[in-house]
Amino acid sequence: MLKHNPTLKYVINRILWYVLTFFVAITINFFLPRIGGSDPVTLTLNRMSSGMTPDRVRQMEEDLNVRYNLARLDEDGNAIRAKVGADGNFVRDAEGDLVPDEKGRVVRRSLFNQYLNYLGMTMRGDLGMSIQQDRPVAEIMRESIPWTLALQFPSIVIGWIVGNILGVLAAYKRGSFDKILFPASMLSTSIPFFVFGMVLVYVFAIQLNLFPAYGGYAWEYTPGLNMGFIMSAGYHFILPFLSICPVMAGGQAIGMRSMSIYELGTDYIKFSKTLGIREHRIIKYIFRNAMLPQLTGLAMMLGQMVGGALITELIFSYPGLGTALLDAVNQNDYFVIQGGALIVAIFLLIANFTVDILIGIFDPRVKAGRVEG
C-alpha cells in the first residue's frame, strides 16, 4: 500500500522520526538537570527547615522524597528507610539486602527507575511539583503559556505575512519602493527586541502616556472571559506586540526580497512575461516558489515562540512562560525548568513536522523525490 502511496509513506516516515526525536528530547531533558548534582530535596530543606527539630526535618525529607517521586516505597506507600554506616553508605546484611532502620536515610530509586517513572509521568501530562511554589508544574505552564502564545503567535504570523508580501513586491517593483523598504527593513532587523521595546516604553508609555508600561492587564481585573479583562489585556498587548512584529516583518522582507530576485532571473518567469501573463499571477508564482525557505524559518519561529519572548516579557513585566522560566532558573526550581524546556521542545517538533509536511505538498522537487523513491 505504501509503495503506491508515496505521500502516505512520506508522512509516516516523518512521524516516526519525530517520535524518536521526542523521546531523545525527553531523555536529555531528564538527565541534563541531574548532571550538576542539584538535589530538589536538599534545596527545599535548606529553604524551609530553619528552626525545625531533627524529627520534623527527617519527616519533611521523607515527604519531599515521596512528593518528588525519588523514594522507594513500601506496600503502604511510605518511603523506605535503611541504616547508614560510618562511611555514609547504606549497611547491607549477609544476603546483600539493605538493613531497615526507621531513623535511617530514605532509600531512593535508581536513576534508571526515576527515568522510567519520569517517562510515565510525562505521558500522563504530569510534570512534577514546583520546588519553590509548591504546586504542580503543569498548572504553572497552563497559566504562563497562553500569555506567551497570545503575544508571540500574532506577532510572528502577522510579521511573517506582511514581511513576505513586502519583500516580493520590493523585488518585483524595484524603484523607490525597494529603495525605501530595503533600508527600513535592515534598520528594523538591526535593532534588538529589548532596545526597541525600551524605546516604545519611553516614548509611548512614559512621555506620551498613551499605553501602559508594564503588566498583562490592569490590577483591578481578574483573568476571565469578561469584556473588562479582554479590553484591558488588549490595551496592554499593544506595546509588546509592536516591539516584536516590525522586527519580524523586516527580517522576513529581506529574506523574501533576496529569494524573489533569484526567482525573477529564472527562465519560467521570463517566459511568463513574454507570454503576457498578468502581473498579479507572476507575483503569485514568485511568492509560491520563494516562500519555501521562508516556511522553514516560520517553523523555527513558531516552535521557539513559547520560550522566545523572554526579553520582551521582562521589559513589559508580561506574565508569560519566559518570565516563569527565568524565575525558575534564579530559584533552582529545576522541575519547572524541565517542564518549560519540554514544552518548548514539543512546540518546536510540532512546528517543524507541520512545515515538513507543507513543504512536501508545495515543493514539486520533494514530490518528485517521493515518486522516484
The number of helices is: 14
Number of domains: 3
Strand order of the largest sheet: 1-2
Under CATH, the topology of the largest domain is which?
MetI-like fold
* Portion in helices: 55-70%
Major sheet size, sense and barrel closure: 2 strands, antiparallel
Please, what is the oligomeric state? single chain
The appropriate CATH architecture of the largest domain is Orthogonal Bundle
Shape: elongated
Name the structural class: mainly alpha
Round the Cα radius of gyration to an integer and report it: 27 Å
Can you offer a commentary on this structure?
This protein is mainly α. It has three domains: 1-32; 33-126, no CATH class; 138-369, MetI-like fold (Orthogonal Bundle), CATH 1.10.3720.10. The chain is built from 14 helices and two strands. It has helices at 6-35, 40-48, 54-67, 111-123, 137-173, 175-190, 193-207, 227-264, 267-274, 279-304, 310-315, 321-330, 334-362, 364-372; strands at residues 81-82, 105-106. Helix 5 crosses helix 12 (321-330). The radius of gyration is 27 Å and the shape is elongated. The model has no long low-confidence stretch (mean pLDDT 80).
